[in-house]
Amino acid sequence: MAFVKLRDIAQTRSGDKGNMVNIGVFAPNPAIYQTFLKKLTPERVKEHFTGIVEGEVIRYELPNILALNFVCKEALAGGGSASLRLDNLGKCFGANLMRLELDVDDSILQNLRK
Amino acid sequence: MKTVRIGAAQGFYGDSIEAAVATAAKGNVQYLCFDALAELTMAILVKDKRKNEQAGYTKDLPLQMKALLPFVREKGIKLLTNAGGINPLGAQQEILKVAREMGMSGLKVAVVSGDNVLDRIHEFLEKGYPLNHLETGENITTVQDRLEFANAYIGAQPIVEALRAGADIVVTGRTTDTAQFLAPLIYEYGWKEDEWDQLASGIFMGHLLECSAQSTGGNFSGNWKEIEGFDKMGYPIAEVVENGEFIISKVEDQGGLVTVDTVKEQMLYEIHDPSAYITPDVIVDLTGVHLENIGPNQVKVSGVKGKPRTDSLKVVMGYEDGYAAQVIVGFAWPDALQKAKKVDEIIRTQLERYRWNYEEVRTDYLGYNSLSGPLAFQPEQELNEVYLRMAVKAKTKQEAARFSRLFPPLALNGPPTMSGFTGNSSPRSLLGMWSTLIPRDEVESHVKVDVLEV
Predict the structure, then answer these.
(1) Does residue B43 carry a pLDDT above 80?
(2) B362 Cβ under 8 Å from any chain A Cβ
(3) For an engineered disulfide with B303, which of A68, B290, B370, B408 has Cβ 3.0 to 4.6 Å away?
(4) What is the pLDDT of residues B314-372, one digit of tens each?
(5) Are A65 and B324 a contacting pair at CB < 8 A?
């Protein structure tokens, strides 16, 4: 097992709708997708965004493109046009999720480097 | 086999027209589709119209028309845009004016109106529609007297009607972003109102195209350093066949990259439940979508499924929600962050002493945590410099405006090196968003299509 940041094993993109933000997280292969399914839980994402996301986090699964979609409620301190935040449109939530660390099997990481 | 080629022309109000011109010249497209509107854009257009009754559509519309009308004339490319915003009839007149100035004739310009329901809110409430907030369930009475705009999101059908009437250009108010892209396919292939899979595929194609370069390498979170030509990005082009499947590409000598990796990021952009992306035309299910690299800068998309559309339409309203003011000041090493934090403390002490009770006071440190908040890493070395940014939210413009006056004296009175003061910008008004649902018929019975010719 090794701790790696999502930055090294995932693509992400985020965007806003009202006071909600969604974050697409994309795995490069099925093994890492399986790791995400087990370890990248909505609870884990909610905990990661403590102090930023006030509401519930819901996770949707897209095995067809090896992706998870996280919908974060009450995430923008009021929503795009009412928020004092500099990232008022939630564009940086994906990048901020890339800071999260997961423990991943060494064999999975070795395959990725090949 | 018949194909329809559609190019993305605009991703938002303020986008560059260069890519659309390149696609018109070299992309072999029959349609160019624009998404000019966002929640924030409607608020900007409302303010424009308040100052000038003729305004209220996007101001870059005449420039876009000047650049693209020659291609409409020479190649028969049709232009579909929701640039009408809060004043679609005004936008139609503007397009006609540009066409006349360019000496064009025989050009048909259609307008779709009826999405603006601001004057009908009272009528809706009297009919017993609650108009509660979709996210919070709150009652609309809390904001009803502060509404600035209210528009229903309408679908592709009126745009199709305009195309059937022979329109070369269709301008609308708040049709959905994706409706501009679906409409030509319904028109070309005669898809029926219950051919859900095809309609869903057309909407998904529009979803991939509506944010311009976001599916051709823009905003790419993967190996973005590999993307070439950020200075002249190509916008996506879709080639669609009758069963709804399509191939995404771009003009070859424009910048960007079209691969499964760049396209899939856009696939989930601003999507919530991927098995039920609700639009006025169809509910789209993305859980069976298949993306495939079939050549350089070519991605094939298949497997989109559709479900019957809902009986209601979404209405988005904006309401006046106070004012915000912000100040940015910089501090140099040594102790840059501590100095900035000290000034934050000083300002908050003064606010308390003067009893200026703002609804919210927010502090960020630019170059340290302004885009990451509590997630920021502790800097390993002392920062070279830090900018303090403080922002407040107030009920009135006056209360917001006086906030910035607290800062200049601290250049002499406060911790050393306060610099880079960017001046007192005037407060900006904040806008709350109110999303709700309304029965489809209430809106659609008021939608109108009018065609004029030069």
Answers:
(1) yes
(2) yes
(3) B290
(4) 999 999 999 999 999 999 999 999 999 999 999 999 999 999 999 999 999 999 999 99
(5) no
User: Measured between beta carbons, which residues in chain B are less than 8 angstroms from residue A73?
Assistant: 135
Across the interface, whether the CB atoms of B371 and A86 are under 8 A apart is answered yes
Within 18-47 of A, beta carbons closer than 8 Å to B belong to: 18-20, 22, 24, 26
Return mean pLDDT, chain B: 96
CATH topology assigned to domain B319-434: Alpha-Beta Plaits (3.30.70)
At CA B179, angle to CA B178 and CA B183, rounded to 5? Answer: 125
10 Å CB burial of residue B421 (0-12, 13-18, 19+) is middle
Question: Would you give the distance in Å from CA B100 to the centre of its chain?
Answer: 30
Q: B432: distance to nearest CA of chain A, Å? A: 5
DSSP state of B114: -
The hierarchical CATH code for the domain A2-80+87-113 is 3.30.70
Q: What are the Cα distances from residue A24, in Å, to A65, A96, B356?
A: 11, 12, 41
Residue with tokens 């501009």: B180
Q: Do B268 and A86 touch (CB under 8 A)?
A: no
Class of residue A16 by CB neighbours under 10 A (exposed 0-12, middle 13-18, buried 19+)? buried
pTM: 0.96
- Residue recorded with tokens 């509506």: B210
- Please give the average per-residue pLDDT across B205-230, as a whole number: 97
What's the pLDDT at B298?
A: 98
**C-beta of residue A111 within 8 angstroms of C-beta of residue A37:** no
Flag whether pLDDT at B124 surpasses 90. yes
Structure tokens at B340: 């900035």
- Provide, as residue numbers in chain B, all residues whose Cβ is less than 8 Å from the Cβ of A51: 373-374
A96 and B324 in contact by Cβ < 8 A?
no
Question: B71-83: buried (b, 16+ CB within 10 Å) or exposed (e) per residue?
Answer: bbbeeebbbbbbb
Contacts of A87 in chain B (CB under 8 A): 370-371
Report the amino acid identity of residue B377.
F
Q: ipTM strictly over 0.95? A: yes
Please report, for chain B, the start and end positions of each structural domain, with discontinuous segments joined by +.
4-115+153-310, 319-434
Q: How many CB atoms lie within 10 A of CB B2?
A: 8
pLDDT in tens, A10-67: 999 999 998 999 999 999 999 999 999 999 999 999 999 999 999 999 999 999 999 9
Paired tokens of B360 = 């919210």
Q: Which two tokens stand for residue B367?
A: 């170059």
* Cβ within 8 Å, pair A20-B271: no
What is the least distance, in Å, from the CA of B193 to any CA of chain A?
27
If you compute the radius of gyration of chain A from its CA atoms, what whole number of angstroms results? 14
Chain B residues within an 8 Å CB radius of A15: 269-270
